Amino acid sequence: MNAPATTLDRRLTAARSDLAAEALRGLVDAPRYAQGFLRRVVDPVADLRREPRPDAPLDTQALAGEAVTVYDEHEGWAWGQLAGDGYVGYLPAAALGPADPAPTHRVTVQRTFVYPGPSIKLPPLAAVSVNSGFAVARTEGDFAVLATGGFVYAAHLSPLDTEAPDFVAVAERFLGVPYLWGGKTSLGIDCSGLVQVALAAAGIAAPRDSDMQEAGLGRPMDIAPDLAGLKRGDLVFWKSHVGIMLDAVRLLHANGHHMLVVAEPLAEAATRILARNGGPITSVRRL
User: Fold this and answer.
1) Is residue 1 predicted with pLDDT exceeding 60?
2) Over 60: is that where the pLDDT of 116 sits?
3) Domain NlpC/P60, which positions (predicted)?
């Protein structure tokens, strides 16, 4: 018997009341199924929302160059699934373009500009965030010429297989960035987005949300009553929250208390979160 879509994680299941992905045939009941077609994010960032409305909750963001399988388009909205982490939702159709050319390079600095020509004196066409992907056709002086048009300072790009040696150092660049539920850029980011973006820069695929990350990343570590024994890169989880240890004492996290990405003593954060009914630390995971 086919399982109803409601028994599956709606965040990762391309199924709704009237339509489901062809790959889910036999797993979910739907009036019709669609094979889907591949598109790629062409805007600097595309907001993925829970419903096809600009005021609907923001679940996550897709960065330039990310592939999306689109199953339906209607009234300016594309309903699809992100290739990177499998998240399903609605994106502005205008933010998507042809699947080819596929990215060859990605941005390895916090933010950089796309220019209309090989000069920093030209007004930029766009500002793009770390991990954004681009197909580079050639270099011209200090600039990479994009296959789709535009010029990016070449030193700000690296081949796709380049991995940052320390994902925590990538996360540290976000210090002071505003907290944004669903955000994944230096203009706004949330707790699990910070973890996902930093790990992606180091070549480590991570789920999008903190509960998925707690279930799927690293191995569990014992939590000492005095929180001793932690080290740089350990992930600390609460219900609906996650942070990254900078060292044995300090936690780096995007949080709704400061509404920023901050570094603070783990003991202080844990005490505050518990006092505000956020619950105790649920686990520590070591990669």
Assistant:
1) no
2) yes
3) 161-287
For range 144-156, the mean pLDDT: 98
**Smallest Cα–Cα separation from 171: which of 240, 236, 261?**
261
Q: Domain range for residue 228? A: 167-286
Give the Cβ contact number of residue 63 at 10 Å. Answer: 24
Q: Is the dihedral of CA 177, 183, 184, 187 positive or negative?
A: negative
pLDDT over 80 (residue 173): yes
Q: Are residues 115 and 176 in the same domain?
A: no
Q: Residue 267's closest CA among 280, 258, 254, 283? A: 280
CB–CB of 99/133 below 8 Å?
no
Q: pTM to 2 decimals?
A: 0.95
Please give the average per-residue pLDDT across 87-114, as a whole number. Answer: 98
Rg (CA), the chain: 20
The whole-angstrom separation of Cα 80 and Cα 14 is: 7
- Token pair belonging to 202: 């180091």
Cα–Cα separations (whole angstroms), residue 182 to 14, 87, 144, 158? 19, 12, 30, 26
The reported pLDDT for the residue numbered 5 is: 40
Number of domains in the chain: 3
CA atoms within 13 A on the CB side of 284: 20
